């Protein structure tokens, strides 16, 4: 699904990612943990195509499988027709996308979803309006018809219910006055509506109390734990991983993956700290 090879990236001319490699298969949940300032958010921004994050070396191949049905995902033929050159044509398989060559909106249309550490507030735009426009922009890029108001509301209600979010919050301006936990739940509602193939979630657990943590964890499982989807969870703490059990855990330090293992690695980190485990 995602193959990151020898990724180097700079922010404001400062090298942050320094040879990061990682492969994620469909059906897998990976967690990246790491100390503050290791480059975790930088990785998610680079994968999302945020301006100001410059890739200086390496490649990222995104190979989304076509999704089977579902209102959000559209028809079975929802695979994007983005015929992009691959860095090494000899290894190109059908459906492989050179992620770094795509604009952010093309990445989203191809099935990439990014959840941010700090979700933005958008005063003056209602949540429903924002979610509907996001979905319909994505459908348009895939050559699908926009969803009608009625169908959209039905979908939004279903996903809001999944995240135990009050419908009133869907009518309010995006994230304005939302608590940290409400912003995160709102983001998961958006993920449910967009129905991505690969979700990269940056510190989705920050600012969540125990109940919200469980709700968000259950939401991630319900939306993303599928054979044709994958998740990259970026987190400081082990606790989210009690609810969303990763298949693999990686430690990011100094701009590279320095250690990989199973779920037990997260417990080891929690107990002993990064310095000791990585040493
Ligand atoms: P993490 O998410 O792992 O805590 P970040 O990816 O946010 O780390 O940051 C990695 C490093 O990049 C930090 O040293 C941070 O100060 C630096 N950095 C991030 N954004 C910028 C920026 N816009 N300008 C300069 N340095 C930045
Ligand atoms: Mg941080
Ligand atoms: Mg961060």
Structure description:
Strands 6-9-10-3-11-12 form a six-stranded mixed sheet, with helices on both faces. Strands 2-1-4-5 form a four-stranded antiparallel sheet. Mean pLDDT is about 90; it is low at about 70-80. It is globular, with a radius of gyration of 18 Å. The longest helix has 15 residues, at about 125-140. The chain has one domain (about 1-65, about 95-270): P-loop containing nucleotide triphosphate hydrolases (Rossmann fold, 3-Layer(aba) Sandwich), CATH 3.40.50. It is an alpha/beta fold and about 280 residues long. About 35% of the residues lie in helices and about 25% in strands. Adenosine-5'-diphosphate binds near residues 11, 14, 38, 39 and 40. This is Fe-S cluster assembly ATPase SufC. One of its GO terms (molecular function) is ATP hydrolysis activity.
């Amino acid at each position: 699904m995602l193959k990151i090879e020898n990724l180097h990236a700079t922010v404001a001319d400062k090298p942050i990612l320094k040879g990061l490699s990682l492969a994620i298969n469909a059906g897998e949940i990976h967690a990246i943990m790491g100390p503050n300032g290791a480059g975790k958010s930088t990785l998610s921004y680079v994968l999302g195509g945020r301006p100001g994050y410059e890739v200086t070396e390496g490649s990222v191949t995104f190979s989304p499988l076509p999704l089977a049905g579902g209102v959000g995902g559209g028809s079975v033929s929802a695979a994007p027709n983005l015929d992009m050159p691959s860095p090494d044509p000899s290894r190109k398989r059908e459906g492989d996308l050179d992620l770094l060559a795509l604009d952010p909106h093309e990445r989203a249309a191809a099935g990439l979803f990014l959840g941010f550490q700090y979700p933005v507030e958008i005063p003056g735009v209602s949540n429903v309006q924002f979610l509907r426009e996001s979905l319909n922009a994505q459908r348009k890029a895939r050559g699908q018809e926009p969803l009608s108001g009625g169908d959209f509301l039905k979908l939004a209600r279903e996903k809001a219910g999944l995240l135990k979010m009050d419908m009133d919050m869907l009518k309010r301006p995006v994230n304005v006055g939302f608590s940290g936990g409400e912003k995160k739940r709102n983001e998961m509602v958006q993920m449910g509506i967009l129905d991505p193939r690969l979700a990269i979630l940056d510190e989705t657990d920050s600012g969540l109390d125990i109940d919200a943590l469980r709700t968000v964890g259950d939401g991630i499982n319900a939306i993303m734990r599928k054979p044709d989807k994958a998740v990259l969870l970026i987190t400081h703490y082990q606790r989210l991983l009690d609810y969303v059990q990763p298949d693999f855990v990686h430690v990011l330090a100094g701009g590279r993956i320095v250690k990989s293992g199973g779920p037990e690695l997260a417990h080891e980190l929690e107990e002993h700290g990064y310095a000791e485990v990585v040493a």
